[in-house]
């Protein structure tokens, strides 16, 4: 019978309690990086390996915990823990609202007071041991400096992506002996949902980190706060539920049956290690988590009475007064904190943009906007719509206020209105070789822009011809980076049906799934339309050979791609965006973005001495210097950027270095830009040639 299985559990449990202390070090150090939901074992094991003093602190805490449980009262008084949320964001969905945070905190309080409706569905064998921790978590109303706070702080930072403990040394926590610090982020290293540290770590690391989507959705924060208060997973301090060997590891909680662990299911009749599993436990990985046990509550209350990590000070009367969380505290209200999105707004001349107020901290009663170059140039509403007529780069200022005070912010370069006749004048071959590319410091209308996240970004690569490269292997999964061209002027092109570009890419293994998307914007960058998407194997150009070292393409490992722009060719507002999402692969290269010209079909050289054209610019003759691997015929061709062939000659090439001189006069070649190519048995190489008179 199931009941018999559970009741017989206690005898075996007590026999194994001594085993936990012997396995404690092993349990903390044996964490796996293969996270499924909670990254606590992974991040915590890293810190334990760095600082052996952590284990000493935890052994002391364990001794205190056992003594505390033996001498505990029958019931616990309700205690209050002050909380501060640090929201790390880039003005996307990860910038969660005060309402979302309040909903999440409400769910935490329901869970820790055993007040959740799911308790009605607890398996009968465990109903008698449902634990009520009698803990209330409250947003702080006073900051460490004594000033008013809402208990929620916002930080614009790239650290919101692929978060690790690094963020805590940049976005410093508030005194962890006075506040429970919770950081929310866009994504976490290793694709986990959240993590915490057990007591005893460096104070700078003390607290909980969670992906923003889990704040007001489910019980993830309750699970992580359980770790923060010294609870392990029911199968022990690892991240590998489902292993039979987990039966030999204990969480040192008297009333949680030993288990192999639940892995994202809700089998309420699950029996493992000879006992009925407490599948509905908050500290397991089930899909129906609903309860703490009385034994888990005892351990959490012991942690809150211990000096390890100063948990005892969190709920002291003195600290509650200092943080504005004591009963009877009257909140005087705060002044708002002004905030505007920092990314540049791109709009065409004569069009408008509706601005968003990102101010926080308190209710706002007054807005005062200032828009240099805009119409109107000022506004007193929260979300004004402003029109810009003249090209330029303009600042925006905002002042917000209420009865408690005023706050102001200015973004010096927030609105960019391009000159639609400047920028890229088609036809144009963007081969990345031009001086000043891609950031023309003297001409904002020619400059390209970059959206950078993670550790590696798009950057010029100059081993051979210049291209743009991103090292995907240096970024965590899901990291997105983009580069955006300046505005494109098609006035001089008759039928610009396609835009061509060259790519080179290799996978590291079969799981590599880096993805390239190319967008067009018909309205100067205000909105974007996907025109090209390839990822994983479909992106590969090196013949499906996995490359574990840094990939550098050979001459034959480039492919020309194209996007259809027939629906946009009448516009002078077109821009291109190349966006890559890193996902375990290798380097991706982009070169020869050919706008309104002919495609450069053939190979792409990577060795700088394979094909030289000089002098360049020229006005009467050109010399070609190229290398061949064997004697063979070579065809030399010159094309206009529109694709018209104006010169063709076949010569005999020799093994090694070859030098060929071409003479011409002004009647043959007008001033302008041309494409000069050599075609061999091995493929084609093309250079840009500039003719002046």
Word description of this protein:
- The longest helix is centred in the N-terminal third of the chain and has 18 residues, at 53-70.
- Strands 1, 2, 3, 4, 5 and 6 form a six-stranded mixed beta sheet that branches. Strands 18, 20, 21, 24, 27 and 29 form a six-stranded antiparallel beta sheet that branches.
- Residues 1-36 and 601-609 have low confidence and may be disordered.
- This protein folds into four domains: 33-236 and 292-323, Collagenase (Catalytic Domain) (3-Layer(aba) Sandwich); 345-417, Sandwich (Immunoglobulin-like); 424-595, Sandwich (Jelly Rolls); 611-691, Sandwich (Immunoglobulin-like), CATH 2.60.40.
- The protein is α+β, with helices and mostly antiparallel strands and 693 residues long.
- 43% of the residues are buried.
- Strand 20 (459-461) and strand 21 (467-471) form a beta hairpin.
- Helix content is 16%, strand content 30%.
**How many beta-strand elements?**
36
Name given to the CATH homologous superfamily of the largest domain: Collagenase (Catalytic Domain)
CATH class membership of the largest domain: Alpha Beta
CATH architecture of the largest domain: 3-Layer(aba) Sandwich
Shape: elongated
Q: Beta-sheet strand percentage? A: 25-35%
**Low-confidence segments, ≥5 residues, pLDDT <50?**
1-36, 601-609
How many discrete structural domains? 4
Helix content: 10-25%
* Tally of individual helices: 12
Q: Termini separation (Å)?
A: 98 Å
CATH topology assignment of the largest domain? Collagenase (Catalytic Domain)
